[in-house]
């Protein structure tokens, strides 16, 4: 695949609690962080809301819609995605629809997972219904067995991938417990479903990106690009070095 491998960066928003949100300051910070990625050739980004909960609140929906609209206005060629910590893909889709984003990421799509917040159920039916109400196409990228939880009644990865595709996923995100397992899972899924886009969802670094590229259609990166010791600022130098490694393949 080489240079056709799609790199998607992620900028994490602070959780929206009861405190007043200074949207203008948040907007400036977000544009700065996304601009750093775009500057060095990353053409796909996700905005991630980290507010916990089963459902996204109206505050989250409103602020993310406004922020996403600004990002699309400032970076019209950017492929933009929305991801919510809340297990609420219809909210993510309506946000994407309102701001002109291109896709969402849904971490629990089929089955059920045990996570820190309890049992999280798949929302494939919710996605199916929300799609009927979209004004334009919103793609859905879905994790299979997101590594932040443990699946209830795990199926073989090939079976789970088939179910995810059956219920309308446009791309499959695979993340093993370690880098080697991620590659193994990706290879197994691509062998059975060669037409389905497969993304690696974590554990990618500057050191292993070259090895990862032949195994996937794209990868999602974030933590490896953060400034050392910071969780809300992404490093221009690390982004540049990472993309130099990608383009060198």
From TrEMBL:
What SUPFAM superfamilies has UniProt attached to this entry? Ribulose-phoshate binding barrel
For this protein, the record's InterPro entries field holds: BtpA, RibuloseP-bd_barrel
Classification via PANTHER family: SGC REGION PROTEIN SGCQ-RELATED, ZGC:162297
The UniProt family comment states: Belongs to the BtpA family.
Can you say what this protein is called? Answer: BtpA family membrane complex biogenesis protein
């Amino acid at each position: 695949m080489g240079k056709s491998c799609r790199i998607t960066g992620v900028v994490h928003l602070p959780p929206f609690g009861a405190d007043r949100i200074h949207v203008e300051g948040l907007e400036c910070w977000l544009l700065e962080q996304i601009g750093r990625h775009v500057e060095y050739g990353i053409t796909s980004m996700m905005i991630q809301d980290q507010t916990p909960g089963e459902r996204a609140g109206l505050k989250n929906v409103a602020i993310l819609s406004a922020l996403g609209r600004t990002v699309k206005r400032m970076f019209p060629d950017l492929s933009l995605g929305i991801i919510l910590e809340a297990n609420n893909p219809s909210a993510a889709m309506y946000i994407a629809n309102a701001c002109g984003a291109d896709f969402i990421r849904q971490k629990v799509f089929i089955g059920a997972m045990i996570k820190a917040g309890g049992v999280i159920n798949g929302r494939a039916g919710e996605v199916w219904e929300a799609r009927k109400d979209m004004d334009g196409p919103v793609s859905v990228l879905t994790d299979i067995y997101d590594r932040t939880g443990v699946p209830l009644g795990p199926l073989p990865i090939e079976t789970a991938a088939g179910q995810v595709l059956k219920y309308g996923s446009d791309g499959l995100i695979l993340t093993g417990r370690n880098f080697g397992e991620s590659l193994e899972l990706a290879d197994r899924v691509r062998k059975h479903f060669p037409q389905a886009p497969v993304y690696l969802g974590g554990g990618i670094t500057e050191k292993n990106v070259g090895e990862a590229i032949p195994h996937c259609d794209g990868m999602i990166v974030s933590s490896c690009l953060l400034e050392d010791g910071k969780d809300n600022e992404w490093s221009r130098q690390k982004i540049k070095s990472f993309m130099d490694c990608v383009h060198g393949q």
